[in-house]
Specification:
FAD/NAD(P)-binding domain, elongated, 24% helix, alpha/beta, seven-stranded mixed β-sheet
Length: 303
């Protein structure tokens, strides 16, 4: 059974950064990801707040980070971690995947999150038939068509701008009376002339074979109205992946995120956590910083 000093579970921005730092400190380490490196970061159409780049897509930045990381760490993509077992040995953890088993002195959880569903009637029925959670993946198919983006955070407005630039006729629907997104993005939405529909929720997604309309509910009056549309893009938050954390007895907060200290340590010795699975600001640059801290903490603790 292969043995490592640090095993990092998840190859998003934080996980890749942890691998870079861990490798440069001379440890033997491994990153395992159930999908391709990058996670949801691959879907970001354009970032303008990552230091060093005026503008860069998530996919392009991930590829740069992956190239750098694999000079310093072993990377296994498309390998799913199914179980982590604590032991009393020097190699305290046995990591079982769908392909193999490994032992490690420490674990960094960088398991990320997944898109939160809208839970509207018809949402599940029309996934892939006009309902999408990824503008980068599916936006091309909606050029010249009417679509709505549901959400009010940074991701929703970034993707709405991307869809507009692709040539889609996009409107933004948000349940509150103002957006949560950065003012810079709100200003860009106005400058782009993207219509916004506030104080409204999507109650139902309708159509025959594909999406043809949505039913909107005014959150102030309760009034319902149908709005024709060819597509519904959803960006209403994320669900942290904490299944492995719970196996290990890692403490979570009331929202289901992992609680960590300033050194990215959890309540379980030699288990660290970084990125979107943790309590804190959900930003790419934050995840990278946390990855550096966690790898350094793990290095010092196992010496």
């Amino acid at each position: 059974m292969e043995q490592y000093d640090i095993i990092i579970i998840g190859a998003g921005p934080g996980g890749l950064t942890a691998g870079i730092y861990a490798g440069r400190q001379g440890t033997k380490n491994l990153i395992i990801d159930r999908d391709l490196a990058g996670g949801l970061g691959r879907e970001v159409p354009e970032m303008e707040n990552y230091p060093g780049f005026d503008s860069i897509s998530g996919l392009e930045l991930i590829e740069k980070m992956k190239t750098q990381a694999t000079k310093n760490t072993e990377l296994h993509e498309n390998e799913n971690v199914e179980e982590i077992i604590k032991t009393d040995d020097e190699y305290r953890f046995t990591v079982k995947t769908n392909k193999s088993e490994y032992q490690s002195k420490s674990i960094i959880l960088a398991t990320g999150s997944s898109h939160r569903n809208l839970d509207a009637k018809g949402e599940a029925e029309f996934k892939g038939k006009g309902v999408s959670y990824c503008a980068t993946c599916d936006g091309f198919f909606f050029q010249g068509r009417d679509i709505i983006m549901v959400g009010g955070g940074n991701s929703a407005l970034q993707e709405a701008l991307y869809l507009k630039n692709l040539g889609a006729n996009v409107s933004v629907v948000h349940r509150r009376d103002e957006f949560r997104a950065q003012k810079h993005l709100q200003n860009m939405i106005k400058e782009a002339g993207i219509p916004t529909i506030l104080n409204s929720t999507v109650e139902e997604i309708k159509g025959e074979m594909v999406v043809e309309a949505v039913t909107l509910k005014d959150t102030q009056t309760g009034e319902l109205r149908d709005m024709p549309t060819n597509g519904v893009f959803i960006s209403v938050g994320y669900i942290p992946h904490t299944e492995l954390a719970q196996q290990l007895g890692v403490e979570l907060d009331e929202t289901g995120h992992i609680i960590i200290d300033k050194n990215q340590k959890t309540n379980v010795d030699y288990v660290y956590a970084i990125g979107d699975v943790c309590v804190g600001l959900k930003q790419w640059v934050v995840a990278c910083g946390e990855g550096a801290v966690a790898a350094t903490s793990a290095y010092h603790d196992i010496q």
